[in-house]
Amino acid sequence: MITEIDRDDFRNLLEEISNCYMPFGKFGPKDYPPRGVPIYDLPPEYLAWFAERGFPKGRLGELMQHVCVFKETGMDMLFEPMRKRNGGRTRLSKKPSQGSFDF
Length: 103
Known about the structure:
mainly alpha
């Protein structure tokens, strides 16, 4: 996917990824308000599901493909500066609803 890319193009790609949030599905704004999960924090299994069945059309799908390749090749650390800037990795587990207890 990424064979030759100059430094500025790569920097721009990472910046675009850092500003992209999942707009639909189980990691979208409905379950993770207000914008959804940043695509760089999507689980590798979720990205692999799209890789098998097809990424969304358009720029979102292209960016998700890049994130998938980065994660598959062990380059997830590329996203650490973005996570630091946004207060850390997105918590993907659901918080228990108030008033419910599990004993």
